[in-house]
C-alpha cells in the first residue's frame, strides 16, 4: 500500500492483478486498484474531478481526466473517508500510475489539488 497526505487529505492505494485476456488479437493485462480518500483536515471538502497518468513498460502513456470518481463527487466532512475501486488495462505486465484530484474546501471555497502517489502495477508471474 502507498499513502500520501496533501492539504490534510490522505490518499491510500492498494493494487491487484486481475488477469490477462485477448482483445483485437492483442494481449492485455488487467489491474485493479482500491483508493481510500480520508479527510484529516478541519473543513468539509468535495472531490470534483480527477487526472491520471498511466504508464506501461513499453513507454506508452495514457492520460485520463474526468468528473468525480466512479460517477460520484463525494463530500467528506472532517474525519470521513470515501473508498472506491477501479481498474486499467496495460499492454505490458508492468506499469505505474499517478495523478491528482481537484477538490474544493467548503469552509473557504478554495480549490486545491490532492496528489495521488505513484503506485506500481505488476503481474506476479512476471516478477523474478
State the CATH topology. Immunoglobulin-like
Main β-sheet, in a few words? 5 strands, antiparallel
- What is the string of SSEs from the N terminus onward? EEEEEEEEE
CATH top level class name: Mainly Beta
Task: List low-confidence stretches.
Answer: none
Query: How many E strands?
Result: 9
Q: What's the overall geometry?
A: elongated
How large is the radius of gyration?
Answer: 16 Å
Instruction: Kindly state the percentage of residues in helix.
Output: under 10%
Mean pLDDT: 94
CATH superfamily label = ApaG domain
Task: Tell me the CATH architecture.
Answer: Sandwich
Protein name: Co2+/Mg2+ efflux protein ApaG
Domain ApaG: 3-128
Features:
mainly beta; 0% helix; Immunoglobulin-like; 9 strands; 128 residues; four-stranded antiparallel sheet; five-stranded antiparallel sheet
Q: Your description of this structure?
A:
The strands form 2 sheets. Strands 4, 5, 6, 8 and 9 form a 5-stranded antiparallel beta sheet that branches. The chain has a single domain, classed as Immunoglobulin-like (Sandwich). The chain is elongated. It has strands at 2-6, 9-23, 26-39, 45-56, 61-67, 75-76, 81-90, 94-105, 111-122. The two termini are 20 Å apart. It is built from no helices and 9 strands. The chain is 0% helix and 70% strand. With 128 residues, the chain is mainly beta.
Secondary-structure blueprint of this entry?
Elements: E1 2-6, E2 9-23, E3 26-39, E4 45-56, E5 61-67, E6 75-76, E7 81-90, E8 94-105, E9 111-122
Antiparallel strand pairs: 1-2, 2-3, 3-7, 4-5, 4-6, 4-8, 8-9
Amino acid at each position: 500500500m502507498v499513502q500520501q497526505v496533501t492539504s490534510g487529505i490522505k490518499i491510500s492505494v492498494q493494487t491487484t492483478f486481475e488477469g490477462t485476456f485477448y482483445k483485437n488479437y492483442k494481449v492485455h493485462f488487467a489491474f485493479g486498484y482500491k483508493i481510500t480518500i480520508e479527510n484529516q483536515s478541519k473543513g468539509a471538502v468535495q472531490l470534483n474531478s480527477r487526472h491520471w497518468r498511466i504508464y506501461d513498460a513499453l513507454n506508452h502513456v495514457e492520460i485520463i481526466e474526468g468528473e468525480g470518481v466512479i460517477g460520484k463527487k463525494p463530500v467528506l466532512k472532517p474525519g470521513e473517508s470515501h473508498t472506491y475501486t477501479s481498474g486499467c488495462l496495460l499492454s505490458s505486465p508492468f506499469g505505474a500510475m499517478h495523478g491528482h484530484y481537484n477538490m474544493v474546501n467548503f469552509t473557504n471555497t478554495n480549490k486545491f489539488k490532492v496528489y495521488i502517489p505513484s503506485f506500481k502495477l505488476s503481474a506476479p508471474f512476471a516478477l523474478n
